[in-house]
Amino acid sequence: MIQKVKKRIFDVLHGTSTEDVYVRVFHVFIITLIFLNVFAVILETVESLSLQYMILFRAFEVFSVFVFTVEYILRLWTCTTDKRFRGTMKGRFRFSVTPLALVDLMAILPFYLPMCLPLDLRFIRALRLFRLLRILKMGRYSESLRTLGNVLKEGKAELLITVFGVLILLVVASSLMYFVENAAQPKAFSSIPAAMWWGVATLTTVGYGDIYPITPLGRFLGAIIAILGIGAIAIPAGILTSGFAKEIQKRHEKRGMCPYCGKDMTYPQEKSANSG
Amino acid sequence: MIQKVKKRIFDVLHGTSTEDVYVRVFHVFIITLIFLNVFAVILETVESLSLQYMILFRAFEVFSVFVFTVEYILRLWTCTTDKRFRGTMKGRFRFSVTPLALVDLMAILPFYLPMCLPLDLRFIRALRLFRLLRILKMGRYSESLRTLGNVLKEGKAELLITVFGVLILLVVASSLMYFVENAAQPKAFSSIPAAMWWGVATLTTVGYGDIYPITPLGRFLGAIIAILGIGAIAIPAGILTSGFAKEIQKRHEKRGMCPYCGKDMTYPQEKSANSG
Amino acid sequence: MIQKVKKRIFDVLHGTSTEDVYVRVFHVFIITLIFLNVFAVILETVESLSLQYMILFRAFEVFSVFVFTVEYILRLWTCTTDKRFRGTMKGRFRFSVTPLALVDLMAILPFYLPMCLPLDLRFIRALRLFRLLRILKMGRYSESLRTLGNVLKEGKAELLITVFGVLILLVVASSLMYFVENAAQPKAFSSIPAAMWWGVATLTTVGYGDIYPITPLGRFLGAIIAILGIGAIAIPAGILTSGFAKEIQKRHEKRGMCPYCGKDMTYPQEKSANSG
Amino acid sequence: MIQKVKKRIFDVLHGTSTEDVYVRVFHVFIITLIFLNVFAVILETVESLSLQYMILFRAFEVFSVFVFTVEYILRLWTCTTDKRFRGTMKGRFRFSVTPLALVDLMAILPFYLPMCLPLDLRFIRALRLFRLLRILKMGRYSESLRTLGNVLKEGKAELLITVFGVLILLVVASSLMYFVENAAQPKAFSSIPAAMWWGVATLTTVGYGDIYPITPLGRFLGAIIAILGIGAIAIPAGILTSGFAKEIQKRHEKRGMCPYCGKDMTYPQEKSANSG
Fold first, then answer.
1. How many other β-carbons are positioned within 10 Å of the β-carbon of residue C122?
2. Could you tell me if D208 lies within 8 Å of chain B, comparing CB atoms?
3. B237 CB near a chain D CB, below 8 Å?
4. Percentage of chain D lying above the pLDDT 70 cut
5. Is position D147 within any domain?
6. Which residue of C has its CA nearest to A234?
7. CATH number, domain at B225?
8. For an engineered disulfide with A174, which of A199, A202, C146, D244 has Cβ 3.0 to 4.6 Å away?
């Protein structure tokens, strides 16, 4: 009997059958709780809210940790159902060191650990955000995710070259700007790393405006770098777009039709072969 | 006779025949009035203009509301011509709760309602902007609109994933930045929501410059996030572009020609079939 | 004899044969002079340079106007060679009101006109920049220019819809922001037009930082608008890209080959037809 | 024997066989040293680090120059192995004036030259950054680099037209803004070059916020220019994307398969020919 319950809990936790009502309810509940935890972590940092609703935040924290602890214990108990984690002790240990199990542990640990520093506590609590990644496992948008992944994989070499090129451009541009602007603005352009902060803000077209050239030569140089920054956006855009176009075509081909004529691709050839 | 007039007014209001001169004149008049109302709403908020041309604005308001009221009454009166709104009372009620009829009502209501608060009044008046959406109904650019819609629909799953990914990146980046910069800038990075304001400005490359990291670690983190912000532009651009390319090809196919050869697509197959 | 000289001058001015050395020398000289004039106009506004090199600027101005005057007179004299401008008086008048002839006239007129206001003078002088447009006539990059033109024409309807959509978004976003931020920042968000200045800076991701929301609701609204601003870049980028891809394919097709196989497109069909 | 050693050193330096362990070790060592040198140059400009770790920076400098000097001497000694640089004196001289050999020389020269000015020294030291370009020679990502190069070459004419168009737009927009804003902000918009600094920041959407229009007309003009700035990003993005798409197709074709059907491209034609 206990084995049956164990198997059932394992199935619900891992959502092997999406048609099961319990699986759906459990997953919607956990995802909602994760989202609410993220909101709570964000809102708790607002001092006025944190002071006013301290009890509410605390209660929600206790409730969340309770749920996540139960979830973690159940996962640890039922993990032996999985072939990979067979063995009462050894299997459970191997399960507990998987990245997802560690994330689960880190989401509840800060609550149980003695609270030494308020900053450290918050930092560890931030790890709860990683629970968000679980949503990606849900397979709902798996095809889209695979497309995104394939596009990034397909254009990996070109993207790396672009990133590398942008980094070289950043170092060269920032070094030049440092030499040009250092005399006029010894505080803002105090060193190459300081000039690189300007370089990143310019090449990415963010442009905070906390640091910018003021000498005529510096502005001329800055103008050229800002224009080159357009390329830093246009080139990766081009690479990703080409990748997307190709992925969409591949998906069509799998469905066995020409992406352009919308007809069975093997058709004309076979027909002409038959006609002989 | 009254039925004929009713039918005629209904046709003019709904522009069923674009060749009719009355239809065209009426629509150009209403669209111009809508545009002028939008400009009036915008300009009225400029105090100097509002005080100087108070009478003019008021006169235009009275005239506009008069026209829109007549239009609304005529629409309400003639709506029974439409099969969907048959029935003197029931049909007219059903018509009056359609979104467009409600927008029409809201455009004139603030004038008749007692003016309690000047702010509220203006807010309700802003609803007049929704009349702009009527232009989209005019079917002129319907093919283009359908293309835009199809592209967004086609890339919906990928766009959602991207938006979701950007939101996770935003939360993680802002939380990290809050932990890093809070000590150095307790006012600017007072909470995670405050840090998220920085995160949005950086990932979208807007970069107002009201909030930015000042510590070396914060700047290093900010630089990485700014560079990732390029992806936040490049990935949706890639998705939309692939979608547009596909839509243009589809349109070609409908016209019965291959988008690449510019020839009748069924031609080569039939030719080879005939050759057998 | 005079007719021969006239014909010769006409040919040199209009560059009918690019192999002619005189034509090339003349065009390079005029284009260089136009570029130098643009630089002179730009540099003359720098007070320190203007005062120091006053005589040089004046001399260059006199020399330029002399050359452009001679060019204009020669164009006016020889224009009758062109079939469209036949007739000593009537043809010349018709030539002198063509846009390019008017630009030529406006480039020299400010020199001869009595100089009333220094501002006006400079403004008229700025028209000299329009001479730059002549370079576009030179047919060198005519294929590229035609591609650019075709792309803009092809995506015209979609681009118009996008621009129209961005304008509606701008008006709605700025009106909302005005209602939200007016109370907190009565000076910065004094009116909807003032809020639209914020809206443009945000939607285009320029973000000067002279005006931005400070209330929590305003920042939440601003964040959404900034994210929608990405679409304002991504959608036209997508439209233009699809257009470019199609144009490149068209160019290939004209050369009589399939853009994908690189082979004569009519080949396989004819072959299979012959095989029957 | 010496010839064998010479040949061996030449092979290691030029990495003709990537399977050789010595070649790999040597290249990884040199690349690491180049990267560390770049970091050292960057960090040395931070005064606090420079003072604290002066001896470390100096020791690393001496070590680096020693290695690069040995490398340079070995390259100079073994260069005669290359057919192009045959001849003890003449060949070596011809090798020493190749761009890469000059870069190598410039990377060590500042150390040996008497140190006159600290600024000049640093500037010459910055040339060490050019050693980074050597990584590009390593042929690892050669296919990707060739793709990037081909894309830029393919769209060269269109990109030039775009750059040229953006420059004309920049000059016209900045001149107009100078005339409009000069009276209101005589310091910020003191001249057209100063206005061009605003123009670049706006067209590239960087928007530092150090200079922006404040008059209503100036803001209206600025809004239009900012919107046109989107085109300055979208058009090159479109050109580069179309180029990338085409390059990817070309690569497929080389592999002997149709990029769309995924089949041998000559297949259908031959089959139909055989069927006759």
1. 18
2. yes
3. yes
4. 76
5. no
6. C237
7. 1.10.287.70
8. A199
**Max CA pair span of chain D:** 85
| Number of domain units in chain C | 2
**Residue B157: how many other CB atoms lie within 10 Å:** 17
Select from B175, B192, B238 the Cβ nearest to the Cβ of A240.
B238
Confidence band, pLDDT 50/70/90 cuts, at residue D129: low
Q: Report which of B12, B110, B116 is spatially closest to residue B69, judged by C-alpha positions.
A: B110
Per-residue pLDDT at C141: 45
Cβ-based contacts of D219 with chain B (< 8 Å):
none
In a domain, A150, yes or no: no
Are A45 and A160 in the same domain? Answer: no
Q: Once rounded to an integer, what is the mean pLDDT over residues D256-269?
A: 45
Q: Which of A230, A240, A241 would best serve as a mutation to test chain C binding (most C beta carbons within 10 A)?
A: A241
Of the partner residues C46, C148, C151, the one whose CB lies closest to the CB of residue D191:
C46
Q: Does B207 touch chain D (CB under 8 A)?
A: yes
**Interval A3-42: pLDDT, tens:** 888 888 888 877 655 667 877 788 778 878 877 887 887 8
Residues C126 and C219 in one domain: no
Q: Compute the distance between CA of residue A70 and CA of residue B154 in angstroms, rounded to an integer.
A: 41
CA angle C185, B42, B13 (to 5 degrees): 145
Residue D3 burial (CB < 10 Å; 0-12/13-18/19+)? exposed
Band of residue B261 on the pLDDT scale cut at 50, 70, 90: very low
What interhelical angle do C192-203 and C156-181 show, nearest 10?
130
Q: Which of D91, D109, D141 is the last residue of a domain?
A: D141
Looking at the domain assignment, is residue D206 inside a domain?
yes
* Cβ atoms of residues D125 and D41 within 8 Å: yes
> Mean of the pLDDT values across residues C105-115?
68
**Confidence (pLDDT) at D113:** 64
The answer on B99 and B64 residing in a single domain is yes
- Mean pLDDT of all residues in B96-124: 66
Domain range for residue D256?
Answer: 156-275
CA distance B204 to C202: 9
CATH of the domain at A122: 1.20.120.350
In a domain, D148, yes or no: no
Q: Is the pLDDT of residue C142 over 80?
A: no
Phi and psi at residue D122, to the nearest 5°: -60, -40
Which chain B residues touch D208 with a CB distance below 8 Å?
A: 209
State whether C213 and C161 are in the same domain. yes
Residues 7-46 of D with CB under 8 A from A: 38, 41-43, 45-46
- Give the global pTM: 0.80
